[in-house]
From TrEMBL, chain A:
InterPro entries, alphabetized: MetI-like, MetI-like_sf
Domain of life: Bacteria
Regions crossing the membrane: 9-32, 65-91, 103-122, 151-175, 256-278
Entry protein name: Multiple sugar transport system permease protein
Family affiliation: Belongs to the binding-protein-dependent transport system permease family.
SUPFAM superfamilies from the UniProt entry: MetI-like
UniProtKB/TrEMBL annotation, chain B:
Pfam family for this entry, one: SBP_bac_1
GO cellular component: periplasmic space
Superkingdom of origin organism: Bacteria
Name of the protein: ABC-type glycerol-3-phosphate transport system substrate-binding protein
Organism: Kaistia hirudinis
Membership in a protein family: Belongs to the bacterial solute-binding protein 1 family.
Localisation: Periplasm
Main location class: periplasm
Signal sequence interval, chain numbering: 1-31
Keyword terms, alphabetized: Periplasm, Signal
UniProtKB/TrEMBL annotation, chain C:
Gene3D superfamilies for the chain: MetI-like
PANTHER family (alphabetical): INNER MEMBRANE ABC TRANSPORTER PERMEASE PROTEIN YCJP (PTHR32243:SF18), MALTOSE TRANSPORT SYSTEM PERMEASE-RELATED (PTHR32243)
ABC transmembrane type-1 domain mapped to chain residues: 78-268
Protein name: Multiple sugar transport system permease protein
Lineage summary: Bacteria, Pseudomonadati, Pseudomonadota, Alphaproteobacteria, Hyphomicrobiales
């Protein structure tokens, strides 16, 4: 076979094997679980066809989690892109002290669990600096953790704080690699800074933005610790995303079949969406 | 130059990482009998055995190990993660943990039904020197008894009660302690009005817990018990799978369950702090300890937890204990729980495991625990009336706490394998109703239809 | 590496834009620093000071929390985290670099599908893969080893590394490879002696990103190991779960947990920017 004589094959094989071990078996196992009636409260474990999926699609938890996930995904991603882009634009200016960049990326080294605790404490409506002191002082009466909207806003803010620095780094790198001649050329045509951004910066960093978005969307769908620590998915189910619902199903309600079914649904939907995004934006050699 | 250094540093760290990783991969071999445990609260639970860091064995433990020829390995973790590890171990029959931590609010019921635990009745006589069932408060054992068998021994445990600020009660003219739920609500109303009149906005009449999930359910089930007079979850108050099956008892969350649920939600909304819909016991404890709550109920222990560390003088000086209010049915608002430990059915040496368990729940160990935390809670009457606690608490407090233990009905909620799911669903419904995303009726209607379907699916009504 | 700057000597930026930029920078700094300052202050307070409102800004700092870290044996958690994160960096780079290089030199469907497959590995939610991973490592006898954790972390870090490197390698002209090939060098030699030296800054950046992701991840790290393998995030979480809510200690551990990662990031911040940037230089 010609492929065995191709060095590229041998270069890729170790990675494929390593990832394959950790991915292929679990994927197969997950699918098998999703078709199995497997709940710890019932000693019997048996093949149940699409039974778990039927229960899943009919549960109110699932419907609410889909909406919560969508709201969270769109809100946090939009804010994060805006914030990261703003930072990248502001800090890519000449003579920006590099200390500023170092400060801005500090949240990157704080584990999401810790970020969650910190923001939970800050936003606490009775004892937190923001929730009980600064925001009420500014006339904002909403309880930032116990009000359904407030809780969602808090979680989104904490998430932007925690993950935007990574996106900022990618944007910044992409912006700094734009050859200067491009700007000189458009300036000769009398363009202002906004036109520069629109006609040079944005098109040039598009691939970086798409890659960052792709990773971001996947991360957002799977965000767990941060939300769990801050609100436990509450109040009620106001911040219970699919990832939290799946976690609950498996480890608090002991229904592994149902959790697996949800896992399968999530993987399929994410893969389809990502694949469309990939083919649409990334395939033409970027 | 700097760059070179950086590279060298990078290379050095990478090599170090690789070697360290390889070294770490080779684990030491095991000798003699070992018993592995996973638990939470390093420096809190069993600090007398594993030290304040949870990593150094104390002389007491070393003596035990030497005497019995057993090595005890403790692994501390965050509660959620620790529970998850236990579950993975049990589900896969790994047997990595000989002793597993449980709770009388779901884990005992589910894991015993699933066949993951060793019944302890046959072991009780084997290590009587360490654990003698006759010496502890009976209800704590009953709480861990399912289907007539004992599945776990109690460690840290509590019953219901009220911790309140006597000075504020006095200030607003509440001179007799409210004994019934009606009187309690009237008192809360008076306090609320008084606080408002005095322009105090950062002190709340009541603190409870309303976070989604199982958190509020233990207390909420107590409200239901007090208002209905029985565990009003299923028709006829059926509490065991056998009873539910025999009577084909349907859930009654929109029936007798409702009054207690509604009261819990209304009290939380009307008298609780604004953030109560996401509050856990930590928030209850902190609010009370910071002097920002007047009444804490029905899990009084969370109030006692907040008192010792408080720097608000009035909290230390004027906190008092009162019995849990009695509902219209004549039963008190219950809140009863034991953090208990069981023997894994997959343990390779169940006798050794039981021996360690008996030691870990023995009188001397519990006495050290009482010394360390100093709250008026213990599983042994002898410790309750012993020198440690009598030196710290007035007699009426200790007697009150004890009375709440003895008169408690640990089975104030059904003992079914699905309990965990129900606790989670009920708590989340309460959180929704408190936050106002749903009305009480909507939340209960959804709970009812979920429960009907769930019980149907579990084959109760075949 | 050639580092170019935008606007170096372009037309003057309008004052309004400069003011907006300044305002945004100030806002962003405040936003980013507030929680960190809160943590830092909290770590120097007593438990009750930390809970007090309005917040006390002037107080006698207490270093009790920091000495408690040493006393309570949290240093072990730092060691565990360091070992897990560093071995993950090594594994990721060893596996990812050749693969990314090969992918960069591929065209057509194979390259297409493979790189998509790599990213799709990240798509499974953790709650769904924990049990299967546990079953797998139990079967392989790898349960309770750090190898298992490193392998599990690969699903998070390898896709990221491969994608970062892939775009970078594509920007290195293929003529370089061909010239070396004419001199008789094989693919491995080209990778080792030509590509890797050029890509060193980028590799450093990838190493840092991988380090951070592995350092911060805690569920897998904890579930797949037993006694004594507690990592820093797990230690922080377990502190919050005890009956005392020791915020100063939580804060102190959090602040300390930043230090190793900050050192790692600090000395290479320039590499990250330069490395990522050079990725797209034509």
């Amino acid at each position: 076979m010609a492929i065995f004589n191709d060095w590229r094959f041998w270069f890729v094989v170790p990675m494929v094997l390593a990832l394959g071990t950790v991915v292929l078996f679990p994927s197969g196992y997950l699918v098998w679980m999703s078709l199995t009636h497997w709940i710890v409260t019932d000693p019997e474990r048996y093949f149940d066809g699409v039974g778990n999926f039927r229960v899943l699609f009919r549960s109110a938890d699932f419907t609410s989690a889909v909406w919560v996930t969508l709201v969270y995904l769109v809100a946090s991603t939009a804010l994060m892109v805006a914030f990261a882009m703003g930072l990248a634009l502001a800090l890519s200016a000449p003579r920006t002290p590099s200390a500023l960049r170092s400060i801005v990326i500090m949240p990157l080294v704080i584990p999401p669990v810790v970020a969650g605790f910190t923001w939970r404490f800050l936003m606490n409506g009775e004892m937190g600096f923001l929730g009980a002191f600064l925001l009420p002082g500014l006339g904002l009466k909403m309880n930032m953790l116990a009000d359904p909207t407030g809780a969602m806003i808090s979680v989104v803010i904490a998430d932007v704080w925690s993950r935007a620095p990574f996106m900022f780094l990618i944007f910044l790198a992409a912006m700094q690699s734009i050859p200067r001649d491009y700007y000189e050329a458009i300036r000769l045509d009398g363009a202002n800074v906004f036109q520069e951004f629109l006609h040079v910066t944005l098109p040039m960093i598009r691939p970086a933005v798409v890659v960052a978005l792709l990773f971001r969307v996947i991360d957002a769908i799977n965000t767990f610790e941060l939300i769990y620590v801050m609100t436990k998915g509450g109040p009620g189910r106001a911040t219970q995303t699919l990832a939290l619902f799946g976690w609950k199903s498996a480890f608090q309600r002991f229904d592994f079949g149902l959790a697996a079914a949800l896992g399968v649904v999530m993987v399929v939907v994410t893969t389809v969406c990502a694949s469309i995004a990939y083919r649409r934006f990334l395939r033409p050699a970027t | 130059m700097l760059k070179m250094l950086n590279r060298a540093a990078l290379a050095a760290t990478l090599t170090a990482g690789l070697t360290a990783g390889l070294m770490a991969a080779t684990a030491p071999a095991r000798a003699e009998t070992t018993v592995n445990i996973v638990g939470f609260g390093a420096g809190f639970a069993w600090a007398d055995l594993f030290g304040p860091s949870g990593t150094e064995k104390t002389q007491k433990l070393l003596d035990f190990e030497k005497k019995e020829g057993i090595t005890v390995n403790m692994e501390y973790a965050d509660e959620e993660v620790a529970r998850q590890k236990v579950l993975l171990d049990l589900v896969n029959g790994t047997g990595n943990y000989d002793l597993v931590m449980l709770g009388s609010d779901g884990a005992v019921q589910t894991f015993s039904a699933a066949g993951y635990l060793e019944p302890l009745d046959g072991h009780l006589d084997k290590a009587k020197d360490y654990f003698d069932a006759a010496k502890v408060y009976k209800p704590f054992l009953e709480a861990n008894t399912v289907d007539g068998k004992l599945w776990a021994l109690p460690y840290y445990s509590f019953g219901p009660g009220v911790v309140y600020r006597k000075d504020i009660f006095d200030k607003y003219g509440i001179t007799t302690f409210p004994k019934t739920t009606e009187e309690m609500e009237a008192a809360l109303k008076t306090i609320k009005a008084g606080l408002a009149k005095d322009g105090i906005t950062d002190v709340y009449p009541l603190t409870m817990r309303g976070a989604p999930g199982e958190e509020p359910s233990l207390d909420l089930a107590g409200f239901v018990f007090a208002f209905a007079g029985y565990p009003a979850w299923f028709e006829g108050g059926a509490t065991t799978p056998a009873e539910i099956k025999a009577k084909k008892a349907k859930p009654i969350f929109t029936g007798d369950f409702k009054k207690g649920f509604e009261t819990f939600v209304n009290w939380a909304k009307d008298y609780g702090p604004p953030g109560i819909a996401t509050h856990t016991w930590v928030d209850m404890m902190n609010l009370y300890g910071q002097g920002k709550a007047v009444v804490l109920l029905p899990s009084a222990i969370n109030g006692f937890a907040g008192i010792p560390g408080s720097e608000v003088p009035a909290v230390k000086q004027f906190s008092a204990y009162g019995p849990s209010p009695i509902g219209p049915s004549g039963k008190p608002i219950e809140s009863f729980w034991t953090f208990s430990v069981g023997v894994s059915n997959f343990s390779k040496d169940k006798d050794a495991a039981y021996k360690v368990l008996a030691f870990m729940t023995s009188e001397p160990v519990m006495e050290d625990f009482a010394t360390q935390i100093g709250w008026p809670y213990t599983t042994y009457p002898s410790i309750m009336h012993g020198p440690v606690l009598t030196a710290k608490w007035p007699k009426e407090t200790l007697d009150g706490v004890e009375a709440a233990f003895i008169s408690a009905d640990p089975h104030y909620f059904p003992y079914i394998p699905e309990l965990n799911e129900f606790m989670d669903k009920i708590g989340t419904a309460a959180s929704e109703a408190i936050a106002g995303t749903k009305t009480t009726d909507e939340a209960l209607a959804e709970l009812q239809s979920w429960a009907e379907e769930r019980m149907e699916r579990a084959g109760y009504y075949k | 590496m050639i580092r170019r700057r935008i606007h170096d000597d372009g037309p003057p930026v309008p004052a309004s834009v400069r003011i907006a930029r300044l305002a945004f920078t100030i806002f962003a700094l405040a936003f980013v620093l507030l929680p960190i300052a809160w943590l830092a202050l909290g770590s120097l307070k007593t438990r009750n000071q930390a809970l007090a409102l309005p917040p006390q800004l002037i107080f006698t700092p207490s270093f009790d929390a920091y000495s408690a870290i040493v006393a309570k044996g949290f240093l072990g958690a730092f060691q565990n985290s360091l070992i897990i994160a560093l071995s993950n960096v090594v594994l990721t780079l060893l596996l990812g670099t050749p693969a990314a290089y090969a992918l960069a030199r591929m065209t057509g469907k194979a390259q297409d599908n493979l790189s998509f497959w790599v990213i799709s590995v990240r798509m499974a939610p953790v709650f769904a893969v924990i049990l299967p991973l546990y079953v797998l490592f139990k079967a392989l006898g790898l349960l309770d080893t750090r190898v298992a954790v490193s392998l599990a972390h690969l699903t998070l870090t390898l896709p990221l590394a491969v994608w970062m490197l892939l775009t970078y390698f594509r920007s290195i002209p293929e003529e370089l490879d061909q010239a070396a090939m004419l001199d008789g060098a094989g693919p491995l030699q080209i990778l080792l002696y030509i590509i890797v030296p050029i890509a060193r800054p980028m590799l450093a950046s990838v190493a840092i990103v991988v380090f951070i992701f592995s350092w911060n991840e805690f569920l897998l790290a904890f579930v797949l190991t037993a006694r004594g393998a507690q990592t820093v995030p797990v230690a922080v979480a377990s502190l919050a779960g005890t009956m005392s809510f020791d915020w100063p200690l939580i804060a102190a551990v959090s602040i300390c947990s930043m230090i190793p990662a900050l050192i790692f990031v600090g000395f290479a911040q320039r590499h990250i920017v330069a490395g990522l940037a050079s990725g797209a230089v034509k």
